[in-house]
Fold these 2 entries.
Entry 1:
Amino acid sequence: MNFTQIKNRAIAEWEAQRKSDKPHILVGSATCGRAAGAGPVLEAIKATLAQHNLEATITQVGCIGLCYAEPLVDIVKPGRPRISYGNVTPEIIPQLIEDYLIHDNPRADLALGTLGEGDIEGIPKLFELPMLKPQVRIALRNCGIIDPENINQYIANGGYSGLERALSLSPEAVIEEIKKSGLRGRGGAGFPTGLKWEFCRKSPGTIKYIICNADEGDPGAFMDRSLLEGDPHAVLEGMLIGAYAIGATEGYIYVRAEYPLAIQRLKLALQQMAEYGLLGDNILGSNLSLHLKIKEGAGAFVCGEETAMMASIEGKRGMPRSRPPFPAQSGLWGKPTNINNVETWANVSAIMQRGADWYSSYGSEKSKGTKTFALAGKINRTGLIEVPMGISLEKIVYDIGGGIPGGKRFKAVQTGGPSGGCLPASQLNLPVDYESLTAAGSIMGSGGMVVMDEDTCIVDVARYFLSFTQAESCGKCVPCRLGTKQMLDMLENICRGQGKPEDIDLLLELSQRVKAGSLCALGGTAPNPVLTTIRYFREEYEAHIKEKRCPALACTELISYYILPDKCQGCGICLRDCPAEAIAGGKRMVHVIDQDKCIKCGTCLDVCPERFGAVVKVSGEEIEVPKEPVPVAAAKPNTQA
Amino acid sequence: MSEKGISTLGREGLILRLKEAQSKFGYVPQEVMAELAQSLEIPINEVYGVASFYSFLSTRPLGRNVIRICRSLPCYLKGAQTVIEAVEKELGIKPGETTPDGRFSFQLANCIGLCDQAPAMLINQDAHVELTPEKITQILRMYK
Ligand SMILES: Cc1cc2nc3c(=O)[nH]c(=O)nc-3n(C[C@H](O)[C@H](O)[C@H](O)COP(=O)(O)O)c2cc1C
Ligand code: FES
């Protein structure tokens, strides 16, 4: 079969599915869905169908990004739009299936929205909902829509037509097209992709390599996992196009070991490609030959750095080396090598499928196209999103993410993981593009976006990131190995209330040195979380240092718990539950916390009945309370005993 | 391919072979490292250097089940610390340790990509999410 025949068959199959007179049930089965319980839901669906003797096609799809509403189940009845149901449980399935498939009640009360043509009364269109409306899906175009384990569904939706188009052009023309699209690397640094390819193409050598960076190690980032689980062929097609443009014949996909499902889906995808002549020698009868291998990581954050990754692929310790020479000149085994991020590759296939002009119509002047982000932390709708570049942080946090839970106040949003920074409310109108985020002291990064509320201590967050980079520093260069350690020590002291007035300036100075002197970007960007938090939240550092006060009431060693004598009713619940036996009291006695014994676990505050509200948490102040338990009445002369 | 030479090709597989040993024995025994060094014609300290660099490889025996609780920021913000304490209490061991009966090893890990349903952990290859101290007892019971 040639590719045209393969394509025609795939389209026929897809159309037959769409026009089928059987209902179609789709279950979100990416890691997020599975973890939320998609497995038992799937079993319940099968059991219910069998029980009612109903026939339906069941497909497992990737993540559509509404992770907060997992498990997701979609039902398509013939001739009707697809309905998405969120937070589905195995218990609700029998009723849902019976109601909709048998009694034709679409259960609008359980539905999130509809997809596709047509309306169903009482159910909004999914992509008209506030969390989806501002989104544009390019990299994630098929995630949650097609079966990632079925290459035909990818092909039926335009898949591999980008490769066909590339093969009809010269490699140089393909590079031009990518340049024209304005695509920049999505792995963090934002280097123009076409330019990078051109360097590698022009590098002398007969053997060249391409690598897909799927090491995704930034805390709070799961975009690449979802993409690989939901649409592996979008990434692999991008790699074929890149190999053709660069002249590479060998390639690696380096996936972190923490992503078993992504690895499994990639393996299957490679097999299917080989069967269709999309891998190996003379791909689709052209002069393009590419052999792809999957390399599993073994748990080391620094392996996401390109030179460390190449060392790891060679079977060595994943230690970065200094550049130049750049990978494009001398990479894997000393050969010219081009490395791109998962999302970059998925954009490449979209660009070749639909054209550079279409792609660059999205985004801002210097940042074209879209960017995926993983929303996590203190935000109502966690999940995976894809937005046009230039959208404001505010739109992401409030419109898409639904704001902060529990009526709390927004404090900061962290982008760029350990290489990025914390941006305060005053920066919420910032457009999300490479230049603006960098100017604000953070970076675009790979797409982790962690939202923090008023209960988060900003110094503690800086301390957390430094402890991360410090632990992940490979130890090869001194500024990174020892500089981050010194910075971490200082931050720990500040959180403990042992900071010195000169510490802030010292941190700033040390930051500059670590940035300037480190071998790779791990050390080179490690101070960013410290620099941005000092820039935007300096008064919070000062409160810790000068007043020994943690304004967020988060740093254990700077907080105290007190029982208010005028509120305590002597019920004894806190005394019973205190794990440190730090509370003294008795029946109808005002209880007292022994501040020396208290371990600041907060149990007393949690268990004190709401109607009393007698326990308070404070920082930087002492509250006048009795030293010993006294009768409740004695403390509250106005109420009857 | 020939440009790479035979030895680099074999060298390339070192991490994979160490991982195979890891899943077969629960750790990378010294004898395996010695064998690999010999067959690849590289010094054993180089093999050890690789084995000790990666957190998914262990040069000491691990328990039958490996718990990896995420300690990254999003999980931390959602109360990972209380989950860590619950596991410590339930198993009587601290992160980095193995129970005396060899049933569990307990480690802290960097983000495992389940931040949307934080706090999260992996036990072997299974993901467990939206953890609470209460859920821990129940989950641990599933692993023998
Ligand atoms: C410490 C460190 C970790 C990194 N981790 C990743 C990662 O997990 N994924 C990624 O794509 N790039 C990561 N990078 C960036 C890569 O070095 C490289 O720039 C990127 O893969 C290039 O692809 P792009 O041009 O498509 O962005 C990391 C860099 C550093 C310094
Ligand atoms: S932060 Fe815990 S899984 Fe990502």
Note: Helices of chain B lie at 5-12, 14-25, 30-40, 44-53, 73-77, 80-91, 133-141.
Entry 2:
Amino acid sequence: MKTSNINRRNFLKTSGSAGALLALGFSIPAQSEDVVLHKIPQTTLGLEFSPYILIDDTGKITLLNPRPDMGQGTYQSLPALIAEELEVSLDQIHISQTNGQGKYGSQLSGGSSSVRTRWMPLRKAGAAVKEMLVQAAANKWQVPVSECYAQEAKVYHKPSGKSFTYAELVGDASQLPVPKDPKLKDPKDFKLLGKNIPKPDVPLKVTGQAQFGIDVDVPGMLYASIERCPAIHGNVASFDTTATMKVPGVKKVLKAERAMPHTTVETVAVLATNYWAAVQGRKKLKVKWAPVNEATLSTEKFSAQMHELAQKDGSDFEGNTGNFAKAYSEAAKKVQATYETPFAAHAAMEPVNATAWFKGDSVEIWAPVQGPDGTIGEVAQYLGLKPEQVKVNVTFLGGAFGRKAYLDFVKEAVFLSKQVNAPVKLIWTREDDMSQGPYRPAMLSVLEGGIDEKGNVTAFHHKIIAESIQKQVFKADLKGKADGWAEEGIGSKDSPLQIPNIRRSYHNASTDLPILWWRSVYASTNVFGHESFVDELAHAAGKDPLDLRLELLKDSPRFVKVLETAAEKSGYREKLPAGKARGLAIARSFSTICAHVFTVAKTADGVKIEKVVSVIDCGMTVNPDNIKAQTESNIIYGLTAAIKSPITFANGAVEQTNFHNYPVLRINETPVMEVHIIDNQEAPGGVGEPGLPPVAPALANALFNLTGKRQRKYPLELV
Amino acid sequence: MAQTKLTVNGKAYTIDVDPEMPLLWAIRDVVGLKGTKFGCGMAQCGACTVHLNGSPIRSCSTPVSVVKGQKITTIEGIGTPDHLHAVQQAWIDEQVTQCGYCQSGQIMSAVALLKEKPKPTDEDIDLYMQGNICRCGTYQRVRKAIHRAADSIQEAKPAAAKKTASLDR
């Protein structure tokens, strides 16, 4: 581990009523996991710009959480990384959310990256401050540092039993240099990491005290609801506000805009003194939309377009081995199958919302966003302001699953506030949320496999046909090449199948339907075809699907361990009574391996999903109970996508509008879930997403084993 | 607009709103209690569940005119971080919440369930709680927490028969 670039700096000491304050912050350059410590300028101290660790001489310890909490647990996990090395217990700290300032590094909750990328930097930050506090105590006592140790926010002198609280040491410690290479704890000495410790946000969330974006109140604010073209991309031809203005509470109606990454469209906004009035006023609007080419927004036509592309040869991903075409042509047995996944909505429980206050030369935002740093950047660019003129306050997120990293709603609120010169709170209705996107992109997986006379798989090809998030959202030019982002879950690193001739290829299928990452992104769709097809190959080769996987993954011990554990915990080798069957799938995504074994049963009301046994190897853990919770969450979220309604676009509008026609899994459909975590000392992997990709194929494989019918398209039917 | 009297968590409010305004928005935007959440606006998800005279209702689809003068209880009236209801405590013990957004509604439904069925089975729970959606998928823990709360309420009864307040204050 490289630690040499920790800069030596003095800490800042402030005296007076606020007392001495020890502040340590660091910035993490993009794409780097190295930590750079730097001095926090005095101007940034205070309520607005807290550094990562604050200890004042009243004993208050504040740790900053740099990744917004959307349910994945960063409100605990990231402060715990600091606290472990700082030697403070979690009930001794206050937790504060970072506000997007550059000094905190990347603050985007996404890619299941929080713990695995912050694991070393945050621990080092804690360790550095602890060493300074210990040194300060040793200096005061005039004893060797080796005779001192830190525990529970105190430094002890071992031989004499004397102690100082951190608060008593802050002044002296702040004069010391920052250790260049702080010593990290041996994992066997961890007191917090790897333990089931109750999450500090739970008491807030069970009493209605936790503040979500939708709960923000700014004095004098107007509430907004926005009428949008059902065809998503339509512009306003004309609108009549007569009836709307008669609704008590409605203050203003105006033409507004929705700035999406790939296009900006016109909308009509109603602003009122309460949200209900805004919605009522919106219902009474008469808007004529400019004609839209609906043909470009038909999911049926898009599907046909993908199937047409499937007939053509695509562009190769990197990491192909052998010669697939030759091996396939020579194979004794050839298997070919096409799998299709539809568009899907995120449908987080908290509809997107934002409160904005444009004040002429600055703007302040309160919102449930996944990345406050990205919010500052995008809003500054949108308004032509400097980043320092944009202030973002991040609340708890009532779910996000990727959606709250797409900042159209924040820009809408900012736009309205600028127009009306007042704070504006914008809340999307559930109908807006479901029928306006962005969505998980629909895609096709075309798979081909060759088997020799002995039953060995000799050739394997996975061709992906999908729209590119990188292209539509981030304006990347694919230049006819394979979209490197699109092989998540099935690329050579994520799927190290030992087959001599493997090809992975790609076709870009263009659509204007707004798309975005959705929990586990491409892995959520790719793995369905990939892992279903491994079962199809096993059946064609006359092998048990578990045995074939153990054979194809024999050189990847972590995969083997997960498979064997899943088999053992689920009783995979034991025979089930008639009318029941099991199905298995495994995938690696976001540096974590997860396998599910589904047990399904025939009942009078169709097929029931009885049980899911999961095994996850995510390396070293922060909170095992939260890893189990996230895996349970992935099973439920993945099942909804696999067995419930897709998002479809026809006749000029998305056909799903609310939970009655876009149903999601409910408690009565919830199988028994059992999650096992592999205990090892590997580097931490992601947790928020890797449980999802194997859900649909494990279910599809179980359904095949139960019914003999192979389902290759969502929604999987439980019949 | 009309003057409407509401009793929320034992406190009387007189609010001046459109009588058709759903109770949800009256509670959130006028009374100012934010624990009750908006999820769908059509009684599909249960995030807005409150109690009307002790029984669960979907406040997003209940006009204030219908509930005027009657006893409304929200999540804030069930318990506080310092004085938790047995159901809230069970939710903490089972670490149910993830994003937490739907949990006020889940807890309001669970409190009402335990009043009707002090010892519910899994099937009772599934039947009663299926109106409450959770996109984080905390359902298995909801089941466990309801069983735990049921046990703790049963245990507390003989010891503190007089002290035990009704589930829905």
Note: The two ends of chain A are 53 Å apart (CA to CA).
